[in-house]
């Protein structure tokens, strides 16, 4: 984020991280105190990142519908902007108290919470629910044969682009190689179009480029080897930095990108949604956030293509980078929390979530609710994938993920070399 690393794979807001954290503090102080009262009433503390439409409206609606069907249950929902959420969860994890239900992108961050004994093993208690969900969407939350979260969204990162801008620049088809991509950036600039929007302030959007380039350079083998050895100084990662610098040297981003957030006014999503930039490298949630942030959205003018191959690289177009969004349960969460998660992705709610344009299907057979051509492409690419890499800022422990984001941001800002990025990430990984 990763949104979801919103994504990530994440539904974000223009509220600053500090303000969001302060606003939520009174409610979040009660984290871990959910459960049954002496009067038989059950309170479920739910902390999430649904701060933009449509999830901003859908989640409270679903929670209220559940409460209406279960009068003894009260769901207290708190939504935080992505970065504020990650900061808050880091603090809560350190305190030993987490919410009854909280969003997770899986990987090393979730593993750290599991190792601390803070997360419920859902393998048995939620087996009926998990059997209705696609196996691939459960992978980020599985460790040692056990499942620790229920997914509600699953997808991958790719380029979302404005077809009108590509036509204006004389680009006949999306690029399939990095060299073609750089040529297209030059064509867009020559046509007077800002090629790429980037939320540099949030850092994780820039990480996507470095991660994908490393995958295209070294293939899944390089990614797996780095995870095993905690060594990111190999040719794939240094090469990724060099290729990213090739892009940065073309000055492809919107003015002021280093101070722009992903979904803030004038930021990445708003720039693409308002037609001020030709494309962004983002997860499956991009069109919905573009529309929410800009008030417009591109509609039929929006297209999608996978991250290009690198000439001479070991990776292939079918190796994908991304992840999903899931909900984990705190160790003290009441049994009703599992029932609520089942309600969240029941047939009716799953169809509404997917058809809203903000979520990719996780329930078996829910693909039929996809109407947007770009999102169908994402689903098809994910289904045909030959390799899958979770967002790097989620795949590894928090300190490593943060170093990846910080170092890549420094490279994009001209304050670090490709070699320094690789060395800094390696140092952080080996210190864990």
UniProtKB/TrEMBL annotation:
Key word Repeat present: no
Keyword annotations of the record: Signal
Keyword Signal: yes
Sequence intervals crossing the membrane: none
A Pfam family that the UniProt record links to this protein: SBP_bac_1
InterPro entries: Bact_solute-bd_prot1, SBP, TAT_signal
PROSITE patterns: TAT (PS51318)
Signal peptide start-end: 1-29
Superkingdom of source: Bacteria
UniProt-recorded name of the protein: Extracellular solute-binding protein
Biological source species: Actinomadura nitritigenes
């Amino acid at each position: 984020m990763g949104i979801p690393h919103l994504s990530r794979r994440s539904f974000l807001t223009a509220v600053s991280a500090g303000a969001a954290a302060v606003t939520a503090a009174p409610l979040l102080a009660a984290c871990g105190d959910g459960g049954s009262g002496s009067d038989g009433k059950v309170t479920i503390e739910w902390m999430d990142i649904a701060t933009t439409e449509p999830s901003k409206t859908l989640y409270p609606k679903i929670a209220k519908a559940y409460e209406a069907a279960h009068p003894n249950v009260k769901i207290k929902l708190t939504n935080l902007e992505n970065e504020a959420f990650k900061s808050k969860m880091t603090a809560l994890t350190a305190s030993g108290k987490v919410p009854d239900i909280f969003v997770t992108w899986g990987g090393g961050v979730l593993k750290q919470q599991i190792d601390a004994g803070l997360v419920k093993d859902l393998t048995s208690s939620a087996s009926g629910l998990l059997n209705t969900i696609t196996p691939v969407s459960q992978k980020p939350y599985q460790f040692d044969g056990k499942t620790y979260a229920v997914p509600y969204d699953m997808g991958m990162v790719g380029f979302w682009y404005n077809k009108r801008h590509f036509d204006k620049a004389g680009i006949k088809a999306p690029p399939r190689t990095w060299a073609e991509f750089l040529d297209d950036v030059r064509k867009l600039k020559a046509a007077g179009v800002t090629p790429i929007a980037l939320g540099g302030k949030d850092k994780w959007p820039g990480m996507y480029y470095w991660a994908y380039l490393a995958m295209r350079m070294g293939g899944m083998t390089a990614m797996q080897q780095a995870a095993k050895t905690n060594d990111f100084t190999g040719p794939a990662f240094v090469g990724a930095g060099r290729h990213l610098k090739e892009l940065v040297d073309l000055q492809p981003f919107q003015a002021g990108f280093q101070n722009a957030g992903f979904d803030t006014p004038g930021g990445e999503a708003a720039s693409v949604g308002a037609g001020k930039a030709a494309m962004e490298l983002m997860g499956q949630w991009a069109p919905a956030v573009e529309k929410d942030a800009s008030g417009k959205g591109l509609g039929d003018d929006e297209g999608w293509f996978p991250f290009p191959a690198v000439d001479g690289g070991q990776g292939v177009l079918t190796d994908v980078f991304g992840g999903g969004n899931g909900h984990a349960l705190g160790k003290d969460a009441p049994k009703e929390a599992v029932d609520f998660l089942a309600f969240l992705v029941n047939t009716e709610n799953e169809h509404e979530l997917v058809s809203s344009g903000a979520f990719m299907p996780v329930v078996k057979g829910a693909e039929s609710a996809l109407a947007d051509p770009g999102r169908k492409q994402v689903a098809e690419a994910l289904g045909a994938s030959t390799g899958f890499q979770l967002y790097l800022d989620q795949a590894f422990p928090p300190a490593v993920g943060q170093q990846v984001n910080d170092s890549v941001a420094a490279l994009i800002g001209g304050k670090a070399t490709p070699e320094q990025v690789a060395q800094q990430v390696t140092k952080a990984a080996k210190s864990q």
